[in-house]
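**Paired protein data**
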Amino acid sequence: MNNKDVCIVKLLNGDELVGILSSETEHTVNIENPLVVEEQYNPDDGTSNIILTSYIPFSKSHQILNFSKFHVIQILPVIDEVKRYYINSVTYNQSYVSDNIKSKLSAVNDYMEKKMEQKVPLEPEIPEYSNNVLSFIHKNTSKSIH
């Protein structure tokens, strides 16, 4: 992975992405393996963690995304520790998370289909399943910096 051009991109909608600036034209910016910067607040101890999660987690292909410069507010280089965290996050996601998400989605889909065949509501109190698939997957695949 070429890590010399890892940057943070601030989008017009407020999203902040970390990725590799792979190319740029007069009207577009191409970002390789973009990850969204998110903050998770822990009310139990009052701490916050910064995590990087997939920008479009369920697409078949999102290696390089094209953004109109109209939607880009700023592109800046990142500090070395963020660059290192980004590279580790991409490597980890490609090695472990993608298959884990597919496996969890498959389990959730099997559970939901079984309940629909039985014509009974989902049981949200069962911890290994969730009505909210996005929450279920996010909860089980997030990475954090402390």
Q: What stands out?
A: DSSP finds two helices and six strands in the chain. The helical segments are 80-118, 133-141.
